[in-house]
Design goal:
By secondary structure, the chain is of the alpha/beta class. It has eight helices and six strands.
Length: 224
């Protein structure tokens, strides 16, 4: 019997997305394939905790993500954090998703992170609780896997203890495992895209055309 779609692992992809680009999209797409995810839920942060104030407001960044993921049936947009007062933190977001009227307590959730974000995890608020609420999938460049020797001791211990070599195991529990995966290397950053836009250079082939058109229509990221 095939598993019910609502019981399959769901990817959770939060971020500032200032702006969203092909690096974000490819990470989510490859994770969905590799881990057999029913889909990926994109959650733009309203007010990110550990980053500088975004150049664009929450609603503007939400609209860009909506344009970027349109047409991909495995991607869905969660706008709840945009209107949440105060700073956006990952654990409260996952706690919201664990409510009975959302994903519930038993569905496997897979939090998607890049290697740099995972390396800083010990500085996140209530970071140990993440593993009670979701699995964590860490994307890295080919040939540069997560090195526990370069992590803070507590995080390195959690990584070693929870490391899961088999993607299929993510479906057997709601949370608690860590898995890493090599993704297609795309040297794209939101910082570089903003710099290109600020000087009037083209960001084409770094992000979806629909997002570029939206940025140009509203004159986002210009110096004037």
């Amino acid at each position: 019997m095939l598993p019910d779609a609502a019981s399959k692992p769901l990817g959770i992809f939060g971020g500032t997305f200032d702006p969203v680009h092909f690096g974000h999209l490819r990470l989510a797409e490859e994770a969905a394939d590799l881990f057999g995810l029913q889909g990926v839920r994109w959650i733009p942060a309203g007010r990110p905790a550990l980053r500088d104030t975004p150049r664009l407001g929450p609603r503007q960044r939400l609209d860009m993500v909506r344009l970027a993921i349109a047409g991909n049936p495995r991607f869905e947009l969660d706008p709840a954090e945009v209107d949440t007062p105060g700073t956006s933190y990952t654990v409260p977001t996952l706690e919201r998703l664990r409510q009975p009227d959302a994903c519930g307590a038993e569905r496997p959730l897979v939090l998607l992170l890049g290697n740099d974000a995972f390396a800083s995890l010990a500085g996140w608020r209530r970071w140990r609780s993440l593993f009670e609420l979701a699995h964590v999938a860490v994307a890295h460049r080919p040939g540069y896997p997560v090195d526990p020797e370069r992590l803070p001791p507590e995080l390195a211990a959690a990584f070693r203890r929870r490391l899961c070599p088999d993607p299929g195991q993510l479906a057997s529990a709601p949370a608690g495992r860590v898995i890493s995966f090599a993704m297609t290397p795309l040297d794209i950053s939101a910082t570089r895209i903003r710099a290109l836009l600020a000087k009037g250079a083209s960001p084409r082939y770094l992000m979806p055309d629909s997002v570029i058109a939206h940025i140009r229509e509203h004159r986002f990221y210009t110096e004037n």
